[in-house]
Design goal:
The protein is mainly alpha-helical. 82% of the residues lie in helices and 0% in strands. Helix 1 runs antiparallel to helix 11, helix 7 runs antiparallel to helix 8 and helix 15 runs antiparallel to helix 16. It starts with a helix and ends in a 10-residue tail after the last helix.
Length: 447
């Protein structure tokens, strides 16, 4: 029995290491693609239209997070089912997830299309109709394609649940690569159409998912292929019970992460979105590095916690502490070299003030440290405190950001609010994490 337990620990660690190594290659490529997309898209659209498109993209991300947490619920439940060797239960979970995603997205997309046609999209996004002539068409087309992608993106969570995040990363990387190729084609055609850029950005990931679906479920994972006869309302309820907590956690997170573009566009101008997003994407490289290393710990921790393997969790904690120091050093170096990097990268297509760069660096590190703890807490299923503090932060953020933006007329202060609003959640994540791994968590700290 002890031999079997140790064998499982070794397998978990080997699988985690293999996925981290593979993800470095895949995510590294994906990061280069994202960097290349910035100047290429700027060349196609210019600073103003690029800011408009980035703001629209932020709204589209809301659709991507409307799965009531089913994706993350599937990820955790599938990990547990596979750890217990229950393939039949795992197939029920996969089938029920897909059925519920379809049931959610169809009415949502229909409602959004009606609202977009009847509403004043130019006023909402603070866009000059003389500079962007087909805004509503762009939004409707993007909504339809993102809605279709919403159905199939559970494939990423499926592979996460199998402790194969490298495969999930590969799917995302293929989508990004296809976006880059499509954007390059638009650029070489001499087109400055936002509609073309929108179709490329929202259509490319869908194409990749449509190819990956049969490759996944007609091959090695045929035994887990979604089927109508395996849709189980009991399993759906179980997924919903766990997933809805993830959903409640996601919605405030979306508000905090993705409303900034909208606020900047409305309180200032769409032009200001571009330098903020360039700085954000620059430091997002560190988030990419973080997720490559740390995302596998989510499902691995679920597996370890299910088996009561606290020794493995403690070893993982020490490794993660070293990684945080490494990432901090990288952020400092990136901040110092930012001016030079922007000159080479953007080549004068946009100006990014150092103040925005510095605040973006601080913001990114706060988020990374907070997520370093929340990933493990998510794997354990300890979501209650995260939910309370994330909801509180999201409720406070928008009115506070609007007040500060209007009072100061300075985007830097709005970005400072973004940093400060995350600090209470980071502190609570830190305390809860250490209470749990030391076996001292009780009451609300274990929920």
């Amino acid at each position: 029995m002890m031999f079997s337990f140790n064998k499982q620990k070794d397998r978990r660690s080997r699988l985690l290491a293999a996925n981290v190594a593979a993800s470095f290659l895949i995510k590294g490529w994906s990061a280069l693609v994202q960097l290349a997309l910035v100047p290429l898209t700027l060349s196609c659209l210019g600073v103003y239209e690029n800011g408009v498109w980035l703001t629209i993209s932020s709204v589209l991300l809301w659709i991507d997070n409307l799965d009531i947490g089913l994706g993350n619920g599937l990820r955790n439940k599938l990990a547990v089912c596979m750890a217990q060797g229950d393939t039949a239960k795992a197939r029920e979970m996969v089938s029920s997830t897909l059925a519920m995603l379809i049931g959610i997205i169809i009415p949502v997309v229909c409602i959004l299309i009606v609202v977009e046609q009847l509403g004043d999209t130019y006023s909402f996004f603070n866009v000059d109709s003389q500079r962007v002539s087909n805004l509503t068409t762009v939004i409707i087309a993007s909504t339809i394609l993102v809605g279709a992608t919403f159905i199939f993106k559970f494939l990423g969570n499926f592979y996460m649940g199998l402790q194969l995040p490298a495969v999930s990363n590969l799917i995302g990387s293929l989508g990004s690569t296809l976006i880059l190729v499509g954007t390059l084609v638009v650029y070489l055609m001499g087109s400055h159409s936002m509609l073309m850029i929108a179709l490329v950005n929202t259509g490319a990931p869908l194409i990749v998912y449509l190819i990956c679906y049969p490759v996944t479920f007609m091959g090695k994972y045929k035994a887990l292929r979604p089927s109508l006869q395996f849709v189980n309302f009991g399993a759906a309820k179980e997924l919903f019970s766990l997933g809805f907590r993830f959903f409640l956690l996601q919605i405030p997170g979306v508000i905090l992460f993705f409303t900034s573009n909208i606020l900047i566009a409305r309180l200032f101008t769409p032009d200001m979105v571009t330098p903020y997003q360039i700085a954000h994407r620059y430091f997002a490289l560190t988030m990419t590095l973080f997720t490559i290393i740390c995302v596998p710990y989510w499902t691995a921790t679920t597996d370890a916690y299910t088996r009561k393997d606290f020794a493995w969790i403690n070893r993982a904690n020490k490794t993660l502490n070293i990684i945080m120091l490494f990432i901090l050093a990288i952020i400092v170096i990136m901040t110092v070299l930012s001016g030079f990097v922007y000159d080479v990268w953007i080549q004068g297509k946009a100006f990014i003030p150092f103040s925005i760069t510095l605040i973006s660096a601080i913001y990114q590190f706060i988020i990374i440290v907070s997520m370093r703890y929340s990933y493990v807490l998510n794997g354990i299923g300890a979501l209650h405190l995260q939910l309370i503090f994330t909801i509180a932060a999201s409720i406070a953020y928008i009115p506070l950001a609007v007040y500060v933006g209007r009072a100061t007329h300075n985007v830097n202060y709005l970005l400072i609010v973004m940093c400060l609003i995350h600090l209470p959640g980071l502190i609570v994540n830190y305390i809860q994490y250490h209470k749990i791994i030391k076996g001292k968590a009780t009451g609300i700290w274990i929920k």
